[in-house]
Amino acid sequence: MPEFDFFTKKDIKIGLMEISPLQMILQAGALVKTILSILFTFSVVSWAIIFYKFRYLSKAEKQNGMFVRALSSGDAKGILHQAKLLETSPAANLYRSAYAEAGNPGALKRVLKSQEVMETGKLESHLNFLATTGSTTPFIGLFGTVWGIMNSFSGIGMRGSASLAVVAPGIAEALIATAFGLAAAIPAVIAYNYYLGRTRRIISEMESISEEIEALLEVRP
Description:
Elements: E1 12-14, E2 17-19, H1 21-27, H2 30-71, H3 76-85, H4 90-99, H5 105-124, H6 127-159, H7 164-217
Antiparallel strand pairs: 1-2
Helix pairs in contact: 1-7, 2-6, 2-7, 3-4, 4-5, 4-7, 5-7, 6-7
């Protein structure tokens, strides 16, 4: 059995030819190249979102913890000063928006609910793109796979031969498209589930803190 070193040579031998993955892409048809471009774009944007959400959620969790410690003091003005320094904390943003309605229970509740919706939207932002990437890119890659296999059968029909040299280019296109689709989908699915869990925990914590804020400010003039 021949052995392939994917980390050094990265070549696939077909008959007497050697075709590298880059050559496969360059020799692919226009449709397959378009599919690969779409998959590459999905992958790049997904990774950008993955890094951004990691930094944002980590900062939000850290600042929420700082705000909770400040909230335990019971000093409304001191908490407001601290909240102004914690701009990424959803709980701190709740407090800043609600402070102006202190002493007005009805308005306070409305402001808190409205701000909770806004903060939830910020926490969940861009997760839909990760979900879309995870669910659609395998099928886009599959379309490229099917097209590559169709090209292989077309080559067999035109040449009247089923030799490896005839079917290899189409099969290569199919494999590259499949690989690109999976490479885009797998990280997106893992990141989506991971960040969705973290987001739900932050939202749950924010709702609990919202009740404490309401109890503190509804009796404050």
